């Protein structure tokens, strides 16, 4: 729930990263040669001049019910709809009975509420840290589980309400239906949970934004009470004494942060040979030091949970069978109070009717090109049909979905110069302290430097050298910037420490706009702020002293 991502999970993040790299390669090989000229000529026929956008919209409204129909009202569909309105498009959004989608209802938003409450509990129970600042807490610091849960749920409904209101306020038709494609520009409206269509609407362009659901590996039985996914964990129906968390990606780490703050012991079960496999290695070593070792957390790595059988709270434990991930030899049987399955997410693309349009789903993911156009089985784009967000699997983060939605609307509006740069999209894990990143890990950047024969630069900033972090008595962590030594181009930044999720945008914006690190080094930062940790790293990159 890293950003909704919850962002996201190690597995997903990792997978989508691979997918992105692969599809980039694909696109350079065929978008350039085949689909691009087709698209361009089609657009030229349809819209002779960009300047005549208004008249075009009017002309189109005569033929279609809408300029744009968006299937799905999560953060991706919402972002697409807002931008469509600012581009003057007549727009409808189909909520499928789930306005707000995963992020708002079962992801980033409610998880941030749990993390905020749990973080305060941890802070108030960390007596030494408080004493060092002259504060003592008398009596026990307690929390009311139901009230914490209510905080998360009421936040979700408030954000959901705001989202629907913002759509309506901008003149978007919000339809409480699911959508199925009967043709590329025809969407049948279905009542949530019913199979029969009410009516068919036509649209010049259609965007699929149906998102994803938690993935549960085979052999794991989910009962929603003792064995559950993030969907149920967010309800915080109880706080188990001992919980196994299967998967040490973003979701697993965030829930470990919540549960250990509220008094649980955690056992991670990770299939990769080390914890947090998708993170930059240096950052995951810091994370191990800050988030794992000082807490009641242990871990099995290189093992798979092949069988998980639910128990009965307070009576019968959850039964977990572990095997070696390589050899499949039995390792151990665990009996714990609860198990959280945080092994990634799978696309929610059933029943969209895509097969009829000649689309071959890839493990449920909708294949798309760089403009998010849906590809048919020959790899050619289907005109006027797009897919954004988790459903295409490029990068399973809420804000990535929204950014893809904006890029689709630009494309529809005839702006071919705009291409979303996926490698500049930041991500965060909202543990205490937070972890954030943009661009490549150091390992990936080294491989690229070697392949493309440039020298990789690396520079650090430290929380322990920062006045604000010291004042807060939270002076743990680092910021690491990776760049090309010849051009100063940023290749990535990784931060672990207090408010890392907010600090990453300086680097993300610089990457997005192409500002080299030696220019960033001259940008002035307010003193004293945490942002000076980035300043220290940028200055170090340019060979300047910050202290
Ligand atoms: C196209 O997108 C770019 C962003 O890449 C934007 O700056 C520009 O204003 C857009 N062009 C038009 C004609 O809207």
Protein described:
The chain has 547 residues and is α/β, with parallel strands linked by helices. Helix content is 36%, strand content 23%. Strands 1, 2, 3, 4, 5, 6, 17 and 18 form an eight-stranded mixed beta sheet that branches. A five-stranded parallel beta sheet has the order 8-15-9-10-11. Strands 19-20-23-22-21 form a five-stranded antiparallel beta sheet, sandwiched between helices. Helix 3 packs parallel to helix 11 (398-412) and helix 5 (108-125) runs antiparallel to helix 7 (145-169). It starts with 9 loop residues before the first helix and ends in a 6-residue tail after the last helix. 49% of the residues are buried. The model is unreliable at 1-61 (pLDDT under 50). The protein binds 2-acetamido-2-deoxy-beta-D-glucopyranose. 2-acetamido-2-deoxy-beta-D-glucopyranose (NAG) is lined by residues 50, 410, 415, 417-418.
């Amino acid at each position: 729930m890293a950003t909704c991502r919850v962002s996201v999970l190690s597995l997903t993040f990792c997978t989508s990263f691979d997918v992105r790299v692969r599809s980039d390669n694909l696109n350079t090989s065929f978008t350039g040669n085949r689909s691009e000229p087709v698209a361009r000529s089609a657009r030229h026929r349809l819209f002779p001049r960009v300047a005549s956008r208004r008249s075009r919209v009017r002309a189109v409204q005569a033929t279609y019910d809408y300029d744009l129909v968006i299937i799905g009202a999560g953060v991706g569909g919402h972002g697409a709809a807002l931008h469509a309105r600012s581009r003057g498009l007549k727009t409808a959004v189909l909520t499928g009975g789930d306005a707000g989608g995963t992020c708002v209802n079962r992801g980033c938003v409610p998880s941030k509420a749990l993390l905020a409450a749990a973080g305060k509990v941890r802070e108030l129970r960390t007596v030494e840290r408080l004493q060092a600042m002259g504060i003592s807490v008398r009596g026990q610091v307690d929390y009311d589980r139901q009230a914490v849960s209510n905080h998360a749920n009421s936040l979700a409904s408030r954000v959901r309400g705001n989202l629907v209101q913002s759509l309506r306020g901008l003149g978007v038709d919000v339809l409480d239906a699911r959508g199925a494609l009967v043709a590329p520009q025809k969407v049948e409206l279905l009542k949530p949970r019913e199979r029969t269509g009410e009516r068919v609407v036509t649209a010049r362009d259609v965007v699929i934004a149906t998102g994803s659901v938690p993935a549960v590996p085979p052999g794991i039985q989910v009962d929603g009470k003792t064995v559950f996914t993030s969907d149920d964990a967010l309800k915080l129906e109880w706080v188990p004494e001992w919980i196994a968390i299967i998967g040490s990606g973003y979701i697993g780490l965030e829930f470990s942060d919540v549960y250990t703050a509220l008094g649980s012991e955690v056992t991670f079960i990770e299939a990769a040979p080390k914890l947090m496999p998708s993170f930059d290695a240096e950052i995951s070593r810091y994370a191990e030091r800050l988030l794992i070792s000082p807490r009641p957390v242990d871990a099995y790595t290189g093992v798979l949970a092949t069988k998980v059988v639910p128990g009965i709270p307070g009576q019968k434990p959850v039964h977990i069978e572990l095997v070696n991930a390589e050899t499949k030899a039995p390792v151990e049987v665990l009996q714990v109070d609860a198990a959280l399955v945080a092994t990634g997410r799978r696309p929610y693309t059933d029943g969209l009717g895509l097969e009829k349009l000649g689309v071959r789903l890839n493990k449920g993911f909708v294949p798309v090109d760089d403009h998010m156009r849906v590809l048919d089985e020959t790899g050619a784009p289907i005109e006027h049909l797009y897919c954004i967000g988790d459903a295409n699997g490029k990068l399973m983060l809420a804000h990535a979905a929204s950014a893809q939605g904006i890029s689709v609307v630009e494309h529809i509006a005839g702006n071919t110069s705009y291409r979303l740069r996926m490698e500049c999209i930041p991500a965060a894990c909202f543990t205490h302290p937070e972890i954030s990143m943009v661009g490549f890990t150091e390992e990936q950047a080294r491989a690229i430097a070697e392949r493309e024969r440039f020298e990789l630069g690396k520079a650090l900033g430290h929380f322990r050298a920062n006045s604000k972090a010291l004042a807060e008595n939270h002076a743990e962590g680092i910021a690491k910037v990776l760049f090309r030594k010849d051009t100063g181009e940023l290749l990535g930044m990784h931060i672990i420490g207090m408010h890392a999720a907010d600090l990453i945008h300086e680097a993300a914006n610089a990457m997005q706009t192409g500002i080299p690190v030696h220019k960033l080094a001259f940008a002035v930062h307010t003193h004293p702020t945490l942002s000076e940790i980035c300043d220290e790293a940028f200055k170090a990159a340019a060979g300047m002293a910050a202290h």
